From TrEMBL:
Protein name: Uncharacterized protein
Disordered, as annotated region: 178-205
Signal peptide residues on this chain, from the entry's feature table: 1-21
Organism domain of life: Eukaryota
Ranges of compositional bias, category Pro residues: 184-202
Keyword Signal appears in the UniProt entry: yes
Species of the source: Trematosphaeria pertusa
Record bears the keyword Signal: yes
This protein's UniProt keywords: Signal
Length: 337
């Protein structure tokens, strides 16, 4: 008998509360016996002895008497969202999430950007007070009604609202305007290396550099770096005139000792346009290197001191003609590899 009294009270409570759908409405008058019978049939209850009361309690009314709204999120979180924007976002969220389940620790969330820097975060979660229920679902009508609590009751005279939290029985609804999350930096794919262009075809080449000193009877005098393109293993004729470049600003020699070449020169070499670069370092390196040859899409080529450079007087070749003196000596070579 006691259980029947409890059941009757519970049904009566449910019937009187389920008609309350907004915070402004008051409780409806007690339904008639006929209305209560119809409501019981709608709920599928034919016999009070067979009621699963725990399941029955999951039919939470739209707004229970303990419904409350908390406006905003503290002074340190002053973000606001336009009221009309929030209303539209609530309709979208509740429509998209209707019928979906929620449990403790697994809320339903939605993010709605309302300008370039801000987003509205809407959350529907289960209250810890109802942790024993594992299959609660979102009702679209209840969702809209409850989320409109912060919209209607917070900053009523302003077009922008701070959002807030609505608590209703087993559910918590959150309407939170906040900064838009920074976009996640996706890792950039490693660029596919371009295939190395084929080098110019033909026999391996050798860049050979001659030091030249010129004196004429008219008191004209200059020194030059003269660049030749030759074949590997074959010394060019220092007196030849088919050079690919000549620079008459070389420093003077000290006796028969020539200076080391220093500077950069663009060269037309081995079939390339004038975009190969010879770079002299002005000294002999630890590996006998005196410079480098750089050509597009090719590794740098080490240029070595020519053995004749340190050969003294006998290493020089006199290319004089007529009334002028023109002495030359091999300085360096860069073998194409």
């Amino acid at each position: 008998m006691g259980s029947h009294k409890f059941a009757a009270c519970l049904i009566f409570y449910h019937l009187t509360q389920s008609v309350w759908t907004s915070p402004q409405e008051t409780f409806a008058p007690t339904p008639t016996v006929e209305a209560q019978a119809i409501k019981l049939q709608e709920l599928g209850i034919q016999n009070l002895d067979n009621v699963d009361w725990k399941k029955f309690w999951k039919h939470v009314p739209a707004r229970l008497p303990d419904f409350e709204v908390l406006c905003g999120f503290g002074e340190g979180d002053p973000k606001k969202v336009p009221r009309t924007v929030a209303q539209e976002n609530v309709k979208t969220f509740c429509g998209d999430k209707k019928g979906k389940g929620v449990t403790i620790g697994h809320p339903l969330d939605g993010l709605f950007d309302f300008d370039d820097n801000n987003t509205l975060n809407i959350t529907f979660r289960q209250s810890p007070d109802c942790g024993e229920f594992n299959d609660l679902v979102l009702d679209e009508g209840d969702c809209v009604a409850n989320l409109n609590g912060p919209i209607d009751e917070c900053d009523e005279n302003s077009s922008d609202i701070p959002g807030g939290t609505a608590k209703d029985g087993c559910f918590i609804y959150i309407l939170h305007p906040q900064n838009k999350p920074a976009p996640t930096q996706e890792p950039r794919p490693s660029p596919t290396p371009s295939p190395t262009p084929e080098p110019p075809q033909g026999d391996p080449k050798s860049l050979q550099i001659i030091y030249e000193t010129f004196i004429s009877t008219g008191a004209e005098e200059w020194q030059a770096w003269t660049f030749f393109e030759g074949e590997q293993g074959t010394a060019v004729d220092p007196c030849a005139e088919n050079h690919i470049k000549q620079d008459k600003t070389a420093p003077g020699a000290t006796g028969y000792d020539t200076p080391f070449i220093q500077g950069e020169w663009n060269l037309r070499f081995a079939g390339y346009a004038e975009d190969c670069i010879f770079q002299g370092i002005g000294r002999r390196g630890e590996n006998g290197d005196v410079g480098w040859l750089h050509c597009p899409e090719r590794r740098a080529i080490m240029c070595l001191e020519d053995p004749k450079r340190g050969g003294g007087k006998d290493a020089w070749k006199n290319c004089e003609k007529g009334e002028w003196s023109d002495d030359r000596i091999p300085m360096a070579y860069c073998d194409w590899s």
